[in-house]
Design a protein that fits this description.
- The structure is a single chain.
- Helix 3 crosses helix 5.
- Helices cover about 40% and strands about 20% of the residues.
- The radius of gyration is 20 Å and the shape is globular.
- It has one domain: 60s Ribosomal Protein L30, Chain: A (2-Layer Sandwich).
- The protein has 5 helices and 4 strands.
């Protein structure tokens, strides 16, 4: 007779916790205080070639039969993976730029697009959520609440696809 393996209790939670511990970034290095950016408290991060995914892109499609539901599930999982990549990418940009820990920051963004007036400002702000999470992950701000984060302008320019992010230290 074959023995059947019994599933371990809370194995999904244990794996999730181990994964979260393994993915934490190291403490950022202390940047030199004599650089112009450290004195002015303004940093610009440039992401060439793509934009983060807007939240409403994950909700497109009808909730039809099981095939469509499975397709939507796969799409949502792919978008969650894309958000995680943007968090990590932002954290690496922050570490490379030497942005120190701040008590409060203002974040402004310029979406560079081939065609203007194709996206609304709310969708663009929502697309910045994984980038803001990357700032928290890189220890620039303690949390992404209004206490630590102020929104600046979110605009668009014509040009090759990309994103410019301006981070200003307020306190």
């Amino acid at each position: 007779m074959g023995t059947r393996e019994r599933p371990r209790r809370n194995s999904f939670l244990a794996v999730t916790r181990r994964t979260q511990r393994a993915e934490k970034l190291p403490e950022p290095p202390k940047p030199p205080t004599d650089t112009p950016n450290a004195v002015t408290g303004r940093w610009e991060l440039v992401f060439d070639g793509e934009h983060p995914t807007r939240p409403n892109q994950s909700m497109r499609g009808s909730y039809g039969g099981p095939e469509k539901q499975a397709k939507l599930r796969r799409l949502r999982l792919a978008l969650q993976g894309a958000a995680e990549q943007w968090r990590k990418r932002t954290a690496m940009h922050v570490l490379a730029a030497g942005i120190p820990a701040c008590q409060r920051v203002r974040v402004s963004a310029v979406f560079v697009r081939r065609a203007l007036n194709v996206a609304d400002e709310d969708g663009d702000r929502g697309a910045l959520k994984p980038i803001i999470d990357g700032l928290v992950q890189a220890h620039v701000i303690p949390d992404d609440t209004r206490r630590y984060l102020e929104w600046g302008t979110v605009t668009e320019e014509k040009g090759p696809r990309g994103l410019k992010l301006l981070i200003e230290r307020l306190a």
